[in-house]
Amino acid sequence: LVIIRVGSGAQKKEFHVHRGLLRHHSIYFQDVIRNSSDHEVDLPHEDPGVFDVIFWVAGTSTTANGRIPLSFHYIVELSFFADSKGMEMLRNATLTLFYRKCVQEWRSVHHFASKVYSGTIPQSPLRRYLVDFTAET
What we know:
- This protein has a three-stranded mixed beta sheet.
- The chain has helices spanning 19-25, 27-34, 48-59, 72-84, 88-105, 113-119, 125-136; strands spanning 2-6, 13-17, 40-43.
- The protein is mostly helical.
- It is elongated.
């Protein structure tokens, strides 16, 4: 197991994650774990809530009534985290969550455009989806 400390100060949270899972799902963690002799990784500038959501998405992504309990904000932040850590499967899962949330709530998400555009590259699937969804609705 690898101990991952996420956040700083009172918000700091510790996660115990299997080393093989981290290396399999993230090019970032492949490099960090390969170059580290200890079993600890500190991510003081990341949001512990986003890291919590990673484990939630890996298990189940809806509540008992089929609703997605995550806010659009958290889904976007999770997508940014996945991109920054080379976690392609997680990034794809966040795109699916974003789509399903849009369909469930059927409301405009244009207020996320500047956040998505400032946090993604032009070829980003999230950016392309946001443009397509906005154009369609």
